[in-house]
């Protein structure tokens, strides 16, 4: 699959960012428009020519330096291309995010590995790279990762299992994270580059996911896989730093995917509403529908501005701001899911038909709220950073850089007196931070050139008012006991009244991941 791509490239085709982006964007749109992504969903495989199409345009080296064969695009232009790809197929865009934003930066940051230049050039030309972090019982939480990397003087022996690894069976290289052990271990975790054909590495179960059906996701079994120690990407540093950095950039990529899917859903629904008649009027002339579309477009405007702010901070500081990237990912994924749901509803029965684009977007968009950190995890993190004395200054500096220090101060005042360890309080504080950052970005006026920026800012103010109407009070012990009793009562009732074998089978399938 990968070797045939090399013929499309020559050393004379070195790519530079200057002047290429508009032409590249236009030609990519033309080529993607020729592919049948609906059939790809049914087959659970990409159109046969997709890989060569992406490679021909250089999209496997979006931000990679030109000396490694990459396009060396600024992040803003890279995410524009990812959004454009997602508007055709979220699975295809996911491939670009995994390869460009998760795996490739880890390799690029390790010039000490053997033949790094050769590996990078192969990757930018189509040798796919996977990112193996997630595990059963751990997810992406480093505290519970069980895969081990025993460090010898000249080699590393990896054992363990990874699940839901995108591109795994198509990849040439796999960036694997494991817990370090042995006399030569340095740091808690290591990041190791593993050849897909390495003895002992087995690609097993293919996950049948709800959406993203075009991209393959596998379980990986590492059975005493030995790799030369020169391929330890993290070298003398803790490997979790590399994972955290890639995942932070990955969140911007996921947000870009959400933007592209959201835009396409609005386009499809608006086209339908322009033709569908209800009585004497077209659906789009109904005042309720007009207001619904207005809010959809305003949400799109906010997400686009948040992505612009994230990219600008990358340009200024050299790396994504972890708090802004998390907030951008939360808003994009949550609002993409909301807009997709509303568009399905507008299309009625047609929206529920698998052959309708919005049905596919609805399924694909659901994973965006989970990829690279579930919404609840990111909100809890943002809330904890806002409330913790150790990290409060980081959030304060971010608001200050956006010219919105009063917004930060108001959030701190509002949360004073609440239990900083309570889960509901952390989620609420996370939403305050997320919407506060969105409000700051829209109020700054330099991240959106649209004439509806003021209306988008009003939408955020409305969202904040709704959020504050559900502000958590300090839960009493009696209230928590009551909530627990309600759940236990249901479970006892279900145990005696629901005896379906399907329930038992589903439980057994789920238990293997717990």
From TrEMBL:
InterPro entries the record matches: Acyl-CoA_Oxase/DH_mid-dom, Acyl-CoA_Oxase/DH_mid-dom_sf, AcylCo_DH-like_C, AcylCo_DH/oxidase_C, AcylCoA_DH/ox_N, AcylCoA_DH/ox_N_sf, AcylCoA_DH/oxidase_NM_dom_sf
Lineage: Bacteria, Pseudomonadati, Pseudomonadota, Alphaproteobacteria, Hyphomicrobiales
SUPFAM superfamilies xrefs: Acyl-CoA dehydrogenase C-terminal domain-like, Acyl-CoA dehydrogenase NM domain-like
Keywords of this entry: FAD, Flavoprotein, Oxidoreductase
Family (UniProt): Belongs to the acyl-CoA dehydrogenase family.
Name under which the protein is recorded: Acyl-CoA/acyl-ACP dehydrogenase
Acyl-CoA dehydrogenase/oxidase N-terminal domain boundaries: 37-109
Keyword match Oxidoreductase: yes
Ranges for domain Acyl-CoA oxidase/dehydrogenase middle: 130-225
UniProt-listed PANTHER family: ACYL-COA DEHYDROGENASE (PTHR43884), COMPLEX I ASSEMBLY FACTOR ACAD9, MITOCHONDRIAL (PTHR43884:SF9)
MF GO annotations: acyl-CoA dehydrogenase activity; flavin adenine dinucleotide binding
Cofactor(s) needed for function: FAD
Domain Acyl-CoA dehydrogenase/oxidase C-terminal: 238-385
Keyword Flavoprotein on entry: yes
């Amino acid at each position: 699959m990968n070797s045939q791509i090399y013929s499309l490239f020559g050393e004379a085709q070195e790519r530079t960012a200057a002047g290429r982006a508009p032409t590249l964007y236009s030609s990519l749109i033309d080529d993607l428009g020729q592919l049948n992504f609906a059939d790809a969903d049914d087959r659970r495989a990409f159109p046969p020519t997709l890989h060569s199409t992406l490679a021909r345009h250089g999209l496997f080296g979006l931000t990679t330096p030109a000396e490694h064969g990459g396009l060396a695009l600024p992040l803003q232009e890279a995410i524009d291309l990812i959004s454009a790809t997602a508007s055709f197929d979220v699975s295809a865009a996911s491939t670009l995010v995994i390869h460009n934003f998760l795996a490739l930066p880890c390799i690029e940051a390790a010039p000490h590995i053997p033949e790094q230049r050769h590996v990078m050039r192969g990757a930018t030309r189509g040798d796919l790279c996977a990112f193996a972090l997630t595990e059963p019982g751990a997810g992406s939480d480093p505290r519970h990762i069980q895969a081990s990397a025993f460090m010898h003087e000249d080699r590393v022996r990896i054992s363990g299992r990874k699940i839901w690894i995108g591109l795994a069976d198509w990849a040439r290289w796999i960036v694997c994270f494991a817990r370090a052990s042995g006399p030569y271990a340095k740091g808690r975790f290591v990041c190791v580059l593993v050849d897909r054909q390495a003895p002992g590495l087995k690609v097993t179960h293919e996950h049948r996911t709800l959406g993203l059906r075009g991209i393959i996701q596998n379980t990986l079994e590492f059975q005493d896989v030995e790799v030369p120690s020169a391929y330890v990407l993290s070298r003398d540093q803790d490997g979790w730093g590399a994972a955290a950095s890639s995942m932070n950039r990955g969140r911007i990529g996921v947000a870009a995917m959400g933007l592209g899917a959201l835009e396409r859903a609005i386009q499809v629904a608006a086209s339908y509403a322009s033709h569908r008649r209800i009585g004497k009027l077209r659906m789009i002339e109904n005042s309720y529908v007009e207001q619904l579309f207005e809010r959809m477009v305003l949400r799109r405007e906010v997400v686009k501005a948040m992505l612009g702010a994230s990219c600008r901070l990358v340009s200024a500081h050299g790396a994504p701001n972890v708090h802004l990237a998390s907030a951008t990912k939360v808003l994009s994924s949550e609002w993409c899911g909301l807009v997709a749901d509303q568009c399905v509803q507008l299309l009625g029965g047609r929206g529920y038909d698998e052959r309708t684009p919005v049905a596919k977007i609805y399924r694909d968009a659901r994973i965006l709220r989970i990829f690279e950190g579930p919404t609840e995890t990111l909100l809890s993190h943002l809330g904890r950073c806002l409330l913790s004395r150790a990290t409060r200054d980081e959030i304060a500096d971010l608001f200050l850089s956006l010219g919105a220090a009063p917004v930060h101060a108001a959030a701190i005042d509002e949360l004073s007196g609440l239990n900083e360890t309570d889960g509901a309080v952390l989620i609420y504080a996370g939403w305050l931070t997320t919407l506060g950052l969105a409000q700051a970005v829209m109020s700054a006026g330099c991240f959106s050139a649209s004439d509806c920026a003021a209306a988008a800012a009003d939408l955020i103010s409305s969202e904040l008012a709704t959020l504050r109407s559900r502000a958590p009070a300090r839960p009493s012990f009696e209230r928590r006991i009551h909530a627990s009793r309600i759940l236990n009562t249901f479970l006892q009732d279900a145990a005696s009244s629901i005896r379906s074998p399907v329930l038992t089978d589903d439980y057994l399938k789920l238990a293997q991941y717990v």
